[in-house]
Predict the structure.
Amino acid sequence: MIAPGSTHASMAELNRSRIIRLLHLNGVSSRAHIARELSLTPAAITKITAQLIDMGIISETGTLDGIKKRRSIGLKLNESKYRVIGVKFARSIIQIGVFDLGGNLESVQTLPPVNNDDIPGTLEDITVRVNHLLELDPSIVAIGMAVPGPYLRDEGRIAVVTSMIGWQNVNFLDEYEHAFRVPVFIEQDARAGALAQSLFNPNASSNNLAYYLVGEGVGLGLMDHGNLINGEVGAATEIGHISIDVNGEPCECGNRGCLERYCSAVRMHRIIDESGLIDGSASMTHADACLALFSHLGNGDAYDKLLHDLATYVGYGCVMIINAFNPRQIVIGDILSQAGQPLLDTVKQVVAQRVIPTLSESTEILLSDLPADATLSGAAAVAAAQFLEHPTEFVEQQEPPVS
Amino acid sequence: MIAPGSTHASMAELNRSRIIRLLHLNGVSSRAHIARELSLTPAAITKITAQLIDMGIISETGTLDGIKKRRSIGLKLNESKYRVIGVKFARSIIQIGVFDLGGNLESVQTLPPVNNDDIPGTLEDITVRVNHLLELDPSIVAIGMAVPGPYLRDEGRIAVVTSMIGWQNVNFLDEYEHAFRVPVFIEQDARAGALAQSLFNPNASSNNLAYYLVGEGVGLGLMDHGNLINGEVGAATEIGHISIDVNGEPCECGNRGCLERYCSAVRMHRIIDESGLIDGSASMTHADACLALFSHLGNGDAYDKLLHDLATYVGYGCVMIINAFNPRQIVIGDILSQAGQPLLDTVKQVVAQRVIPTLSESTEILLSDLPADATLSGAAAVAAAQFLEHPTEFVEQQEPPVS
């Protein structure tokens, strides 16, 4: 419950956060421009920007040419003054990245591929590596982690992880909540990916955005009118476990014919192995086997057909996403998106055939073009979004704001 | 774009709306209680409640026993002072109801069953009837309409209406936007139903709520953390057109194996006709044929099995809803919900078999028990919600608020 009197304090934080987000999205802006965009009085702008400059979060640039030839001083977000760590947990793939607040990757490390038996050691390894990064760089203010869904956010564990059940025994909150000198925020991987698209991708700036993760698992993050859809316990938008055939093969979740069984990288790897098209594929990681196939696209019908079959299922997923969530944009990311245009072409064909024209024409489908992996960027975005929303909570320990 | 200076005006309206909603949900409350719940200062409460009393929206009751034996005056919402009209458009069924702000039905009229050819005459009939109600009752402040989805809210038309295509040619905005002395608000039927559950049903008070409409069509309205999920053009949560078998029969929407083809009242009517179980069913309306079957439940395996088969598909819809939206509650309403406990039992069985236990155990599934049809109540809720959010816009024509 909010204590009486807190309304003013949180209103000030809200306005700080709105200014930071505006500068983050629009780049250098004058105080007058910010005042107009956010309907704030000049006096409020002067006060709040002075606080943010004192905190080192924003700074003044040179003068700008304004309307009617008036010149004014520009303000910009110091994106590189504070950093965040993102940790991506896929099934076998773990990556740790250091990002600035603009989503620019400064360093990345990939851990050795993980098997079920390696999980406890891997968790320990992550703690050691993250603590080392924190020691080296005092500008790191938060850590974001992206984990496969359905992630039960209050319990701290993943309810079901197909084809790598060991992860279900991990409690991420117990493991990491108090493990570091900075706070840790944990989010379902595709939801983190959606946040990354919304914060860091200038081509995906819609408020109604789907990030469709097609990697070792199949997941979805959905922003509807600017709100991430979470559900009661954080298990919403689990399209990997929506059935595309209620009489299909059983899945570990209890359902039958789950989408994830038809178009994950795990399934693609199995089909590649069965086809014999890629020498030595059986000993490759899932990602490497898929990338090896993609490198042969255009070199023969057998390769192209294999992708086309998988991409058709990716397309069925898009049809489902449109009917369930009607986003403005669907951004496809993770391993399968690296097949590029041939994947996108098939997906768009399926959508054109199976969706009401009004909706198929108004839904843009694109491939993620973030410089880093969208889930890794997403993990960073989870931390960056917390900073952008509550800047003083992260900074005031060092430099108290002017009140 | 919001004009500078409007922040204060809308803050006052927001606080008026918060007080009205609190009284609507909690019943009689003291000023001190409202101040605590909403973190408002005593001075603000005194001023805003005085305005609302002047506007006739709330009034004082006798004294209440407070904590520490202090006595204070109660405030209550005058739910019956203002009324709204709700209009339900199903395929063949049109109903017009007059409700108070608490969702209590004061009068209802059902139009003759509609066929494709009758639609233009029916639209005119509705205008005449609604205008007559408005003449009789000056306390009516708004009209809500609930129409089948996918309803494209900016265009004012329904993108696809299975088994009754004539509705696709109607533009609801052109038809009704300026037809009456009070404003008209139009919403997809199941989303209106979700709003009705949230506003009017004390057993369905969760912020994470699904209203699952299984009637002549199949639809869904979804509230996630208090926000109705709309999508870019209002076409989200169209589960009737999510496929449960991507290789199934084609649907008018372009997709194959759409849920609506398996468990609508239209489909149930066809199966009843084919079974020969109900004498004269072919000449009945869809609703009457279903109700005739339900009246025989428990009287023989043939009747029970027919419901069980349909209810299994209703259950697959619930599995889809849980994986897509993870609501706290699913309220099933409209024609099929009138089958009662046997339907609910089968649905719960399917969910227990096909959903991760953590989620199936934490999702409550119930039948709508609103006194009126949930979509008709929903139409009224769409109008009532607008009133509760922006009270002065509806009242100030008559009695300007104290500024």
Remarks:
- The first strand of chain B starts at residue 29 and ends at 30.
- Confidence is low (pLDDT under 50) at residues 1-8, 397-403 of chain B.
- Residues 65 and 388 of chain B are 28 Å apart (CA to CA).
